[in-house]
Amino acid sequence: MVTNLPDPCVVVLVGPGAAGKSTWAAAHFPEPAIVSSDRLRALVGAGEDDITASSDAFAVLDEVVEMRLGRRLTTVIDTLGLDTARRRRWLERARHHGLPCVAVAFDTPAAECRARNRARPAKRIPVDALNAQLKAWPAVRDLLPTEGFDDVLAPDPVRVVPPAFVAAQAAERRQRDDPARLRFGLHLGEFVFPVGPAKTAAALREIATGAERAGFDAIYVMDHFRQIPQVGRAFDDFLESFTTLAYLAAGTERVRLGTLVTGVTYRNVAHLGKIVATLDVLSGGRAVCGLGLAWFKAEHTAYGWPFPSVAERYDLLEDALRLLPVLWGPGSKPFEGNVLRVPEAMCYPRPLQERVPIIVGGGGERRTLRLAARHADAANVFGDADTVRHKATVLAAHCADAGRDPAEVALTHLSTTLVGRTDAEVADAVERLRPRREPAARYAASVHAGTVADQVGRFRGLAEAGVREVMVRLPGLGADAEPFGAFSEVIGAFR
């Protein structure tokens, strides 16, 4: 059984000499993460066994630990750990920096410690010193669970993973034992491919057909007119969304197609309804309409569009949610809303679907989720399982207030997801894709980098929190020879 630890975290090793602390640390953590009092004694003194340098070594150790914690880097403190005051100081510093802190208790039998010490070719601990440590150990061992550590572990195998995967193992087992169903959508938010602009169309077609083969239920595109700063540079190649969706409709057969999400200020709403209806007809009834409040002011300014106040945009969003089903329905009824007036809400050909699904993007609890509960088919949110669970409760309450069955409004979830079949494959992908100045652990957490089993556990947790569809951005899409291979195994676990 392997224990998942969150990255970053602080790991304090505790046990007598020759109990196996350094060997265990080296087997489970990269060398830079391990801060060793012995190595620092060699740095500031004549060697690792220079006891006269111990005070200076611990002073340096505390400085190094503080610097690493300040940078939010996983840190393994490799000392005897028998000094209660030092343990509590390290725990306090971890708390100060908002990092989880666990102790690993090396309860190695005294006879084994003595035998290991005798077998050492060098750095042998003096017998009286080792005896003193062994004598002190039982009291320290019994005290550890009372000191406030997040956990006290035995020296069993561990993995350091992004926080989203700490509880993934148990959830993955639940999915194997009692499978839940979950829909999967591929989210495209970047259109810069290694093949260059001239071959963008071919790259997109390959991605779309590959997504269908991998088992994705839908493909969504980000609806902007220039790249957003969270993803790239304003002058990065970026395709218009509905033109792209029409192209993808011609190259696919099964996946649903939509924006995630269209800013309500980007187009005349009645015109938007006509565009979506056309996409639905040409795709054979596979259109999805994503709507959001619009937030990217710089984009509006660059294109010369007005950027209304939040209140005005909420009024417009509510009108759009009410107008579109009318527009897609029979006849040519007039529509009068808060800010919209459409004398003839007419759209022929009508969509092939009886109701084109509408997804409202955003987790705002007071207004966005309320509008989704009243008018939409789904609400798209972000965050971990606890956050999603809370959003689901809020959405259900809004549905009750509106007299609507909560089962009629699905909860969907968007995240970036980097997947590999093994820990080594994941680590290689993180190293290859991360920005050069961004620490690997921080990048791995931002893209939820994990193995197939990790991802199955994470998505099972989201399903249990109330999510019915997950939309994923896959880093490196279009650059990898096998972009969907590992993720298709994740999808397969929910079929």
Characterize the structure shown.
The chain is α/β, with parallel strands linked by helices and 495 residues long. The chain has two domains: 3-161, P-loop containing nucleotide triphosphate hydrolases (Rossmann fold, 3-Layer(aba) Sandwich); 168-492, TIM Barrel (Alpha-Beta Barrel). The chain is built from 18 helices and 20 strands. It has an eight-stranded parallel β-barrel, surrounded by six helices. α10 (269-282) links the parallel β11 (262-263) and β12.
Strand order of the largest sheet: 8-9-10-12-15-16-17-20
The span between the termini is 26 Å
Number of strands: 20
Oligomeric state, counting identical vs distinct chains: single chain
Strand fraction:
15-25%
Kindly report the name of the CATH homologous superfamily of the largest domain: Luciferase-like domain
CATH class category of the largest domain: Alpha Beta
Q: What is the molecular shape?
A: elongated
CATH topology of the largest domain: TIM Barrel
CATH architecture of the largest domain: Alpha-Beta Barrel
What's the arrangement of secondary structure elements?
Elements: E1 3-6, E2 10-14, H1 21-28, E3 34-36, H2 37-44, H3 54-70, E4 75-78, H4 84-96, E5 101-105, H5 110-119, H6 127-143, E6 151-153, E7 158-161, H7 168-177, E8 183-188, H8 200-214, E9 218-221, H9 241-251, E10 256-259, E11 262-263, H10 269-282, E12 287-292, H11 297-303, H12 310-327, E13 333-336, E14 341-345, E15 358-361, H13 368-375, E16 378-381, H14 385-401, E17 410-416, E18 418-420, H15 423-433, H16 440-446, E19 449-451, H17 452-465, E20 467-473, H18 485-492
Parallel strand pairs: 1-7, 2-4, 2-5, 3-4, 5-6, 8-9, 8-20, 9-10, 10-12, 11-12, 12-15, 15-16, 16-17, 17-20, 18-19
Antiparallel strand pairs: 13-14
